[in-house]
Amino acid sequence: MNNNIAFQKCINPDCNTTYEVNRQLTKCEKCGNLLDVMYNWESYKQLKSVLLNAFSERKNDKGNIFNQSGVWRFRELLPFFGNIDNYEEYSKVLVSLDGAEGNTKPFHLSQVGKYVMGKVRFDNNEKKVIETSTELLSSDEQEFMRNNFYLQFEGANPTGSFKDNGMAAGFTHAKMLGVRKVGCASTGNTSSAVAAYAANEKWQAVVFIGKEKIALGKLAQTLEYGATTVQIEGGDFDDAMAQIADVASDINLYLMNSINPFRLEGQKTIIFRVLDGLNWEVPDWIVVPGGNLGNSSAFGKAFMELKELGLIDKIPRIAIINATGANTLYRLFNEKGLRWNKGHVDDKIIEEHYATLDKENIKAKTSASAIEILKPVNLKKALRSLEFTNGVVEQVTDEEIAHAKAIVGRNGFGCEPASAATVAGTKKLFEKGIIKLNDKVVGILTGHQLKDPNATINYHSDSNNIFANTPITVTNSREDIISALK
Ligand SMILES: *Cc1c(COP(=O)(O)O)cnc(C)c1O
Ligand SMILES: [Zn+2]
Questions:
Q1: Whose CA is nearest to atom 14 of ligand 1?
Q2: Domain spans of the chain?
Q3: Cα(69)–Cα(190) distance, rounded to whole angstroms?
Q4: What is the Å distance from ligand 1's center to 46 Cα?
Q5: What is the pLDDT of residue 44?
Q6: What percentage of the chain carries pLDDT values higher than 90?
Q7: CATH assignment of 106-158+264-461, given 3.40.50.1100, 3.90.1170.50, 3.40.50.300, 3.30.1200.10?
Q8: What residue ranges in 279-438 does DSSP mark as E strands?
Q9: Which range (3-12, 106-115, 200-209) has the least confidence?
Q10: Atom from ligand 1 closest to the CA of residue 293
Q11: CA pair distance 322, 328, nearest whole angstrom
């Protein structure tokens, strides 16, 4: 199954070793760095209008599930599977959850837009939430809220998180290799997605999780979809990741973590849909939570390739948001000055930081369990994205995340805590004057609210939380109910 359009390549410019597309690798055999999927797509250049027309025409899917899929609708931009023109050929190899993944687009969430600008706030003297009425906003503020601020709700994917985008591509690569057994370490959403895609393909899935380190909804999905679920006692994501990476080849497992470069190809389509939703007008900012930094890496690669292909001229800045309890990127980037530096990353800074974490037995700790990760596997690729996009890294507390999450809910959407880091981070960057009123901003909401019901219930059960909506308890009597609601 060789094809001449795609190959794998080490990200280290001093190594640059290439590998065939039909190999299952998670790192460079020579130097141990991450790999990219690369393309010889000279023939595509100058095809801007042809490609944009094709993407647009496929919205009338004509019953083709690969046009329905928000990943494969953009198949020319991740053509590692070879023949993109011939339905007979590509329909045999592309994996999709029957066209369901990636049907997302950017939305305006005006209440969240107001919150980000500081116009929905808690007044400590009056002890209540004060919301500036829309009429009192300046015209620039109204413009920001109504037209310049978007959130793309990746929680609308079939398993409730953006991970499905990656699985469509990762499973396609696995299928090209004839693999029928896949696995991952997970904080819950990867395992849900792996389990669902494996179920749909009738393959075996094996997932490693830290016991009690995974939100309720995610564990429920993983079990229901039939994955063999291994809980590591006393372990967290970083432990599960280290274990599965170590044993994967012994138990003949194709690894679906974001260390897998093919998975990240699917996650590029999150950006294609952002741009498609904005009629290919490039925003000023993309804001995304940072966990294993797969999205941050995939987004940067997407922009590099779109620029190379002439589909965009401008590059937006990427803002990556860490939780303060899992802030490796924030610390390395902002405090220790770690940079991609054209590929010459100072490995010593990373090694010393990780050695300190190990020595002092420091573990990630945040209620945003999807980003509760201290050793992000895609660290270097994320640094590359930051350099290419002139990006920034911010961090937010669990409290800031919880309030931001409640505000997303008030827009009738709803996301899990990690996703709300996007909103809390945007607010903070706005306060600091880094994101400006006239900027066009697209935040990615990575996962669905129903994933982590405990986080939501805990917040709303405590009336001290400023946006809490505590339930009203009444006795089972008509009078009591009426008097409580009058
Ligand atoms: C996986 C996940 C993240 C972290 O994304 P990375 O690409 O690993 O940085 C954030 N939010 C949710 C909901 C996730 O499932
Ligand atoms: Zn290498």
A1: 370
A2: 106-158+264-461
A3: 19
A4: 34
A5: 73
A6: 90
A7: 3.40.50.1100
A8: 285-289, 317-323, 392-396
A9: 3-12
A10: 9
A11: 8
